[in-house]
Each structure stands twice: as C-alpha cells, then as structure tokens.
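Q: I'm writing up a methods section and want to include an example of the input and output format. Could you take the sequence below and give the corresponding predicted structure tokens, formatted cleanly so I can copy it straight into the document?
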Amino acid sequence: MKQQLTLEQLCREAAWFAQAEATHAEPALYGVDNGKTIGTYLEHKFRRHLRDNYTYDEGNSADGIDFPGLSVDMKVTRRSQPQSSCPFRSARQKIFGLGYSLLVLVYEKSDDDVARTATLEILHAIYIGQHRTGDYTLTRILREYYEHEANEEDFVAVLRDRNLPVDEIGAREIAEQLIERPPEQGYVTVSNALQWRLQYSRAISVAGTVDGVAELLPGKEPVA
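A: Here is the clean output for your methods example:
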C-alpha cells in the first residue's frame, strides 16, 4: 500500500531524483533548448516517480501549485537564468510571501552529439519555506524601517517608491500591519508583472545557511 506523501519525503525524493537524472541520457531532449519544454519534462517525470510510490493531492489550474496538500509549488529553471513566473494573487505576496513553499530544481543541459542524447545535471535542489518567499530587497528595507520605528506614512512611502501594485487603501492596510510586526526576511527576487517573476539567485547563494532555505543535494556548498 502506498504511503501518503509528506514534506520530508518530497524533499528526500527530490534529492534522489536530481542525482539519478544526472546519469540519464535522454534522446527526446537532444538539441532542445526551450526552457519550458525541459521544465515540463522534468516536472512530469518527477511526478510519475512520486505516483509510483506515494499518494498525494495533485495540483491543477485552479490550485495553481503542484502539491496543494503540502502547500508546495515546483519550479524548474536553468543555471544561466534561474527564474520563473507564478500567478499574481495579491501585492501582499511580495512582502509576506507567496503563501506556499517552493521546490526549485536548477539544471544545466549538455548534448552528446555522437549518441544524440541530452543529459540534465541538477546543480541545485532548493527548498524555500513559504515564510522566505517574499522579495529580498523589499523585505530588507521594510525590516529596517520597522527597527527605526517608522510610522504609517513612512511605510506607505516605501510601498509607493517600490511601485508595489496596490491602491492607496491597500497600501495603508499593509502599513498598519507593518507597524505591528515586520515581515520575515525573504530570499526571492519578486519582480512586478501581470504574473510575478521570481528569481532564485539569492536563495541559491544562501541555501543551507539560512533557516527556511535548504539545499537538498548532499555536498553542495552555498554559492559565493
């Protein structure tokens, strides 16, 4: 009988999958340079592996994340440009986090022209807890303002200066909350767009040294 997938097992399986994938030669990806195609390949292959061994709630377009039962979304990105998009739900996500955790696989692809196969080496498998998914720069600034006992107008001014996509009423509601407590320090770069654009370089650089940002692969050191 299959086990119900837990967060600990998800992280452990992601580490195993990343190491196993590095030795797999895939003909279907030879010559392919489309990041979306490669990401879809890895995500589907990983979920097939999980389905063979566990039961879990699978995400759909309504949920917006891959593992809604665990509140985790999976992202696959290449080393040269470690970023992806995610649905915009609220401007608050940039300050207080996305509302779910991230499992990020960072790959580097190489082609074997003789065998006409491709290999995907997973360089990093990063787990970012949802309390660390806020924007790095904005949360750092807001935490500094809180330490200097900023008032409501100070916080509203910061949100305006950073072009946070929120109206005046929403900005003041956020400011009132920030006066009570600062946001957690985030480690994702969250760019304003119709969809949030997430960049992971900061999280990769601190993985394993900050609570809530873990490097799942053994022997990986933080990036200088």
